[in-house]
Amino acid sequence: MLGRSVGITEQELISMETPDSCPSFNDVDKLVLTYSENLTATNVVGDEVYARLQKAFSNEEIMELAMTVGLSAMVNRVHATFETDVDDSTQDFVSTLTCPL
Fold this sequence. Notes:
Layout: H1 2-5, H2 10-15, H3 27-42, H4 47-56, H5 59-82, H6 88-94
Helix pairs in contact: 3-4, 3-5
C-alpha cells in the first residue's frame, strides 16, 4: 500500500478510522484525517475545520491538501467503477481490517 511506502506504520493505517486511538498521530495529522474524511464523505468542509486548517497551513498548503484529497477521491471512483483488481498482498492486508481503506 502507498502508505507503507512512505513510512506509515501498520498501527497508523489501522487507526485512520479512529485517529484519537493512535498515540503517534499529532494534532495536525488528526486535522488532515478529519478534513479528508469530511471532504470525502460529504463534500463539505465546515467553518470550524477550515479555520483550524488556516491556523495549521498556508493557503498554498491547503490548496495542495485539497487537490491531493480530491485526486485520491477521483482515482478511487475510477477504480470502483471498473472494479480494478488489487494485488494479493494488498487484498490480504485489507481483508484483515474492520474498515477497508
